[in-house]
Every structure is written in structure tokens, then in C-alpha cells.
């Protein structure tokens, strides 16, 4: 068994990728060993064609120290991390890359270049983040959103966050993905605005303001993830016990949920930013090799889906 991929849910993603051509990917400032090795490993697995954007001498030094062979990979010189972020975004805008990947720069630096009004990658959709999680105790891939970008999303923001996640699920061949809209309780009350947002999102789906998925909420986490817990509380729901997406009420809840699953349930989590003109691969130095490869695999599938008319 391959220790970097294992078997199961992430392996199924990689199996889908084997039939597809690698995607040109602008890697912004890969000037640290894990960031550089992640891009090269993904290239060696046929997922991406990395365009390494950053200080050429520094990238070469990091590669030598880490024993990484850069032969055959293109390096595009940029003097520092801000310039690397801007240049990587420019490569996407020029059509030379179809994916963007975070290197060793701060997420804020990359996001500033992405959302810039002049020369950025904005769309009409709110930009959001997803954790695509392989939880050993859950029967399928689980998406947690948004735990990294939108601190206190409005109802309209949540509608876009939800739609971004649904669209990604469709990319992964999940027909009519199920969305559990989380709150502390399963009843609607004005004392908890998250419950009102959840109810409104469900009605927005009824009115086709959100499409492609099946929504239910508010649901407390136990009711969302356990059919038995929902039945005990008298909740009749096709989502309970079988969600594809967990929509968190705010960033803090989403971030804590994803990290609890990682560190208490031994879950792996791939990270992507959605809602921009191209998917953005967002990895962390703390990510396992398996998680970094899975992030690239999900992004590759999303890029190929975007090519279809």
C-alpha cells in the first residue's frame, strides 16, 4: 500500500485523476521545503504541471537542501512573496495556468492578490474555503465550510459559500449533494441568528436561489451526522446521518470543527479556495503528504470540470 495515499476515500479521488491530463498550476512562492516538495510530488503523480513563481536562487537553494530535483520544472523569477503572489495570479489571468497553489507565503498575501479589483481573480461569487475531509469514522468524503476565509458571513455570503461547496461536490460526481446547515440547536429561534439563517437558506433552495443540492437546517452537529440522534429528537430528515457538506455558522465554528476532526478523529483534510476564477490549492506546513496530494487531486478534477461546455 502506498503510504502517501493509503486506500479508501482519497484513493478514489486519485483513481479518477489517472485518466486526466495534468493541469498547469502557478505555485506562489514555494520557498520552504514542504511547500516545494508538495508541488513536485503532485507533479510526479501526474496531477499538476507546476510553474514555480518566486526568487529563483532561493527556490534552488531550498531544493538542494531538501534533495529535490527541479530538472524540467519551470521557475519564474519574482523578487519576494508579494511579487510572487501577483505574478502567479497574472499567469492565471493570461491563461498560462488553470490552477493557483499557495507556497510558503502567508495566506493573506495570496488572497490580497486574488481579490484585487485590478488584476485579481474575482467573480460575482463570494470567495470561500472548503476542507475536504477523509474522516475514518465517516462513510464518505465530508466537506466542512467555511473555516478559513469568511469570519462572520452574512446570509447572502452563506448562500455563496453553500453554492461553492455544492458545485465542488458535483465536480466529484456527487449528484444532489446533501448540505447540513449547522447551529447549536435544531429549532429556529430569534435568540440564535444562525438558526434563522439556516431556515432562510433552505427556503432559498426551494426558490432556486441555491441549486444542485439538498439542504436541511438548522441541525445541531449530532443530528447532522447521526441518523439515530435525529430520530431520537423526532427530526425527519434525508440529510441527517448522510451529509456531504457541513455548512458552519461562522469561521470559528468551521475551523474548530475541521481541526477537531483532524486531531481527535485522525482525519485528513485537503484545502481549497473556491469562488475565484480558478480553484486555489491552499495547503499548510502541518498537512500530511496525503492531504497535500488530495488537495491537488480535488483541484485537478475541478479544473477539468470547468473545461466542459
What are the main properties of this structure?
single chain, 309 residues, alpha/beta, Rossmann fold, Isopropylmalate Dehydrogenase, 2 domains, eleven-stranded mixed sheet, 11 helices, 11 strands, 42% helix, globular, disordered N terminus
Short synopsis of the structure:
This protein is of the alpha/beta class and 309 residues long. 42% of the residues lie in helices and 18% in strands.
Descriptive overview:
- The structure is a single chain.
- The chain is of the alpha/beta class.
- Helix content is 42%, strand content 18%.
- It has an eleven-stranded mixed β-sheet, sandwiched between helices.
- A hairpin with a 7-residue loop joins strand 5 and strand 6.
- The N terminus is likely disordered.
Strand content range: 15-25%
Structural class: alpha/beta
Assign a percent range to the helix content: 40-55%
CATH domain class of the largest domain: Alpha Beta
The DSSP helix count reads: 11
Termini separation (Å)?
37 Å
Secondary-structure element pattern, one letter each: HEHEHEHEHEEHEHEHHEHEEH
Q: List the strand order in the largest sheet.
A: 3-2-1-4-11-10-5-6-9-7-8
**Largest β-sheet summary:** 11 strands, mixed
Give Rg in angstroms: 19 Å
Give the tally of β-strands. 11
Mean pLDDT comes to: 93
The name of the CATH architecture of the largest domain is 3-Layer(aba) Sandwich
User: How many domain regions?
Assistant: 2
Shape by Cα distribution: globular
Kindly report the CATH topology of the largest domain: Rossmann fold
Amino acid at each position: 500500500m502506498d503510504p502517501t495515499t493509503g486506500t479508501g476515500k482519497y484513493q478514489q479521488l486519485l483513481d479518477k485523476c489517472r485518466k486526466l491530463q495534468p493541469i498547469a498550476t502557478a505555485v506562489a512562492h514555494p520557498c520552504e521545503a514542504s511547500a516545494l516538495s508538495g508541488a513536485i510530488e503532485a507533479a510526479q503523480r501526474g496531477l499538476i504541471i507546476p510553474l514555480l513563481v518566486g526568487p529563483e536562487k532561493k527556490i534552488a537553494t531550498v531544493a538542494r537542501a531538501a534533495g529535490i530535483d527541479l530538472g524540467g520544472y519551470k521557475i519564474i523569477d519574482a523578487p519576494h512573496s508579494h511579487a510572487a503572489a501577483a505574478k502567479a495570479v497574472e499567469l492565471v489571468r493570461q491563461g498560462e495556468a488553470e490552477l493557483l497553489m499557495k507556497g510558503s507565503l502567508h495566506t493573506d498575501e495570496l488572497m490580497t492578490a486574488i481579490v484585487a479589483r485590478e488584476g485579481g481573480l474575482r467573480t460575482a461569487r463570494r470567495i470561500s474555503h472548503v476542507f475536504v475531509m477523509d474522516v475514518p469514522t465517516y462513510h464518505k468524503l465530508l466537506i466542512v465550510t467555511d473555516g478559513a476565509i469568511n469570519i462572520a458571513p452574512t446570509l447572502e455570503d452563506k448562500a455563496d459559500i453553500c453554492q461553492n461547496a455544492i458545485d465542488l461536490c458535483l465536480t466529484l460526481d456527487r449528484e444532489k449533494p446533501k448540505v447540513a446547515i449547522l447551529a447549536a440547536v435544531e429549532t429556529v429561534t430569534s435568540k440564535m441568528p444562525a438558526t434563522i439563517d439556516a431556515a432562510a437558506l433552505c427556503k432559498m433552495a426551494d426558490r432556486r436561489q441555491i441549486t444542485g443540492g439538498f439542504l436541511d437546517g438548522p441541525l445541531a452537529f449530532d443530528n447532522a451526522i447521526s441518523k439515530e440522534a435525529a430520530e431520537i429528537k423526532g427530526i425527519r430528515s434525508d440529510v441527517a446521518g448522510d451529509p456531504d457538506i457541513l455548512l458552519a455558522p461562522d469561521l470559528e465554528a468551521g475551523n474548530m470543527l475541521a481541526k477537531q476532526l483532524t486531531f481527535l478523529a485522525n482525519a485528513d483534510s485537503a484545502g481549497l479556495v473556491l469562488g475565484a476564477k480558478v480553484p486555489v490549492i491552499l495547503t499548510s506546513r502541518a498537512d500530511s503528504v496525503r492531504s497535500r496530494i488530495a488537495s491537488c487531486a480535488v483541484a485537478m478534477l475541478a479544473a477539468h470540470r470547468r473545461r466542459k461546455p
